[in-house]
Amino acid sequence: MGKDASKWSNRDILAVFYIIVCIFFAWFISLSNLIFAKHFPDRAYALEQCKNDSTPIGDTFFPKEEESYWGPRWLYFAPHVFSAIVWWNLSWMQLIKWIRAKHLWLHRWNGRIQVVAMFCQIITGLGLASKSPTPVVQMLATCYGLSMAYVLGQTVYHISRKDIVRHKYWATKLFGYAQAIALQRIFTFIFFVMITAGVPLYTPLDQLHTEEERNLLAKQMFSDSFSMCIFSAIILTEWYQAADHNDLLEYRVKEAKEKLPQTDSAAQALIG
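The chain above was modelled as a monomer; its predicted structure follows.
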């Protein structure tokens, strides 16, 4: 509302930094492990790597959970990974203004590709959630998937009506909520660093003497990472979009104040 659209606000700078961090974790913690370390889609090689996991949590719930992706949950997991590769490599291009301004055809076709990729992510994600061994993750992932389906539907609906303003609003929300996928890896990494450093939030690994205790800790971390990633993605997205709502409210307040003297004069005339 009267601001120079070409200038970046502190909010925009923080948002870009946040997206870069999320993409880094999505790629180098998750996708790079699947593609380069596990040789996706080589299931036999990946299963062998899972069984020979020598990390500090290699004897816990985590490698067993990953092993199920390459085994009984492969039908959902394979298209989930493929669509994730498409989404994380191309979705950020939709945010670049000069692409939308000078290469609208690229923005439109990439948008169609991202809609298909996200739809596939949602369907396969719901399938993976239905087979999750932890009830908390099962419920959270299911609710998250249904919410993403609604947001995706709103994004497509408004662009089909050529309502650019509402399309941009819902597309921004879709991209922001999707960061939960990367945030789950970030929180898992943070929790693992905390237990390694002996931070009292979790019991240190060296104090856990049985496989059952280590598995319970791993499952707790897994559930907590899902709770925090979905909550954080929603809150950060709403924080980012709140600035636009505040600008609109300021405009409406200004408009109301301009009309107020006329209203007061009309009221006084009626009283008189």
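The chain has a mean pLDDT of 87.
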